[in-house]
Amino acid sequence: MSELTVTLPGQAPAPAAKPLSSYKPFWAKRFGPAPFLPTTRAEMDALGWDSCDIVIVSGDAYVDHPSFGMAVIGRMLENQGFRVGIIAQPDWLSAEPFKALGKPNLFWGVTAGNMDSMINRYTADRKLRSDDAYTPGGNGGQRPDRAATVYSQRCREAFPGVPVVLGGIEGSLRRIAHYDYWSDKVRRSVLMDSKADLLLYGNAERAIIEVAHRLAAREPVEAITDVRGTAFIRRRNDPTAQGWFELDSTDVDRPGRIDQHINPYMGMAQAAAEQGQSCALEDAGAFDPVKDPVGKGVQVQPIRLDIRSAVTDKVMVPAQAESPAQAPTPGHAHAHDDEADELEAPAERTDASAPGTRTGTGTGKIVMPPRERTVIRLPAYEALKDDPVRYAHANRVLHLETNPGNARALVQRHGEGPGARDVWINPPPIPLTTPEMDLVFDLPYARAPHPSYGDAVIPAWDMIRFSINIMRGCFGGCTFCSITEHEGRIIQSRSEASVLREIETIRDKVKGFTGVISDLGGPTANMYRIGCKSPVIEAACRKPSCVYPDICPNLNTDHGPLVRMYRRARALPGIKKILIGSGLRYDLAVRSPEYIKELVTHHVGGYLKIAPEHTEQGPLSKMMKPGMGAYDRFKELFEKYSAEAGKKQYLIPYFIAAHPGTTDEDMMNLAIWLKRNGFKADQVQTFYPSPMATATAMYHSGMNTLKGISRDARKGERVDIVKGEKRRRLHKAFLRYHDPNNWPLLREALMAMGRRDLIGNGPNHLIPTYQPVTDGTYESARRKNSTQAGTKTSVVTVGRVQRNDGSESTATPDPRKASARRGATAPDTERDPRDLPKLSGKPRQPARGQILTQHTGLPPRATGARKPAGKTAGKKPR
């Protein structure tokens, strides 16, 4: 396997990424792979191990499957020859459970699990969840709040002196000072609270392997400061930080460099002569129509204008260039946002010891030092914790430094005085190549939960056991999503052969397989092998999205490789159906009608979920999502190819309520669109401010961080923030306009907005004037089965239809009486008006596989999928 090198135009190549398979295996490779990574001493004894080299502590139950982070990291380390043990969901009230496998020889690996522990534990309304999809039986309460911090501290307590390496999504999204929605304040970097030695962010195969081999070679963990994709704490004035060029970005509204204006009345030759040079083009008559054009033996040299005579104010001399007694502390130079965004031009240097200085062959731009030796200083934690503007600025800078091809290191100070510490964040890891992706997914996973769980169902495993991940990353850049911060926006795809091998493995080895692959996707279903046409442009690009505001002309949108893989996969023996369960990027799909036809004809099980997220341009621009025109084009093609295939299939769009930038009028217009198009959302999604997301920075600061940040009200853009329980409930109520429990709140809001015309009993009104008797509650679809499409559940319908015998009643609810009864408690004999009609005395329940709902990323509800043919009704499902 050849080494992967990222090269910027005119710059020195970025550090090469050492292939994952090129390391010399650790001596314990002789033990071979374990059926399951051990979780007890008895299992270690059965493997012949006297100790573990690495112990991974996780907040999830142990499922040995490539969709679970602990299994991927554990198996990857095992592949390198290390003995890896797992402590899953330990009791965190003492350090004793953390001693179950003994003292690790090399380090602890700590992760909160596949989800941030706070998102896993609390709803978007900060209410406690009673379930946990990553726990046997789905029981909640099996992990602590802020699990990454708690586990790290217990590991320290169990065996002091053993390095703690923190990873997972919780560590990734909390690597710098971040807004914490649950405490409604800015918290320190998780490194400061957990006291971990290293933090690995993103998909950490590269970093964890390098760290493990260096620790195995007895290198002190304090000396491991140069691994991409890691963060660590540096003491103030640490001598190892010398030699870095520091850009000061700790404040806003400070002017950047001021370049000398070019005299518009001075010709090129005169401007060049003023600097002791000449313009060869003008001397040759290239701009004189009377003279011959260039090209007849005239040697032309490009003109180089030096606008500034020196840039010593931007340079710090590397420490190694001076004696220790004269070595200065790292210099500070302010980095204006625009300046930090531009890609500096290369220049010839005559003095290699002084990067950043001007040479005799200037290019007209300030020559910056190599990006790999440049660090951007973010506002300190103490400066931004009570300053939303600085917080927004820091978040914007961080998101600009996410491309592995050009990202620079970041540093943020925590604390004041002698005890101050710098949190240092190295650039993101180099993406995995296709052979490396194949290596990760071809490891000997057991593809099952650990046997110690017995027959207990782990909902997250039940959801993905027949699904296959074909790629990583997402270049959509949706501001409410954290995939870019964690996985990056460069797509990393597996080979077709590797995917087909995994399908065959599921077919042959996974119990309960009926021939149906539930998903062939990833973060986005249709980004497989899609990326920038030019590696050079990709390495230099600093855009947060490749598809907003429109699809980049440099993006390759060919869905051909994905279509070919679909066809080969469904042709495998024993495969009856392959469904696509991942979300679809429909604005990308419309560029390939062939893909839509293939998808609709063979891979949709009646419903296909897509995510317009909203219909109004205001919130869509803050989400970085396409307008409804792309949705309409996709819907047209979807219906066309469904009809050609002779199938009745439906699109299930889902939307977000209360997103930053959403006004009450925006939600009203969305509700009107839903009613006009016949959608009644069963399960709705309220904006959840996850750590480090761009939309979370908007939520906290009230500013649009996609644009420049300024304290000047005339600059930048202020964003309407939906805060407060009542307003969040209102936006959610607009999505569920059909629920009688929401009608009083909606009536009040519509009247305040001057839209009484939407209140009435006609088909074109949004809500009626009458109010039925309701219990005032809404039971989540995760607790109760949703209604089938077309089922009448309105109280008006209930009043007209006799539930028991089906005979009609002439009684029509009187709006005045209903209004008088508003808020009254219904007698115990009355039915919940949202229940389904009774047939033969039994409530009619939706059939399996016919639930109309919205995707939330959570496991399926109890009804699950339709039972496969041939199964007996009394057989207990797995």
How do you describe this structure in short?
The protein has 878 residues and is of the alpha/beta class.
Tell me what the structure shows.
The chain is an alpha/beta fold and 878 residues long. It is globular, with a radius of gyration of 30 Å. It is built from 28 helices and 26 strands. The strands form eight sheets. An eleven-stranded mixed beta sheet has the order 3-1-4-5-8-9-14-13-12-10-11, sandwiched between helices. It has a three-stranded parallel beta sheet with strand order 22-23-24. A two-stranded antiparallel sheet has the order 2-15.
Assess the beta-strand content as a share of residues. 5-15%
Rg measurement, Å: 30 Å
Helix content, binned percent:
25-40%
The number of strands is: 26
Strand order of the largest sheet: 3-1-4-5-8-9-14-13-12-10-11
Q: How much is the average pLDDT?
A: 81
What is the CA-CA span between the terminal residues? Answer: 42 Å
List keywords for this structure.
28 helices; 26% helix; alpha/beta; disordered C terminus; eleven-stranded mixed sheet; 26 strands; three-stranded parallel sheet; 878 residues; globular
Topology:
Elements lengths: L40 H7 L6 E5 L4 E2 L4 H11 L4 E5 L18 E5 L5 H5 L25 H12 L5 E4 H5 L5 E3 L4 E3 L2 H5 L3 E3 L4 H12 L13 E6 L9 E4 L19 H7 L5 H4 L49 E2 L2 H5 L32 E4 L3 H4 L3 H13 L8 E6 L6 E5 L8 H8 L6 E2 L9 H6 L2 E3 L1 E2 L10 H5 L4 E2 L2 H14 L6 E2 L1 E3 L13 H6 L19 H11 L6 E2 L7 H4 L3 H10 L4 E7 L3 H7 L4 H17 L5 E8 L6 H13 L8 E2 L7 H8 L23 H11 L7 H10 L42 H6 L14 H6 L17 E2 L2 E2 L35
Parallel strand pairs: 1-3, 1-4, 4-5, 5-8, 10-11, 10-12, 12-13, 16-20, 19-21, 22-23, 23-24
Antiparallel strand pairs: 2-15, 6-7, 8-9, 9-14, 13-14, 17-18, 25-26
Helix pairs in contact: 2-7, 12-24, 16-18, 18-20, 20-22, 23-25
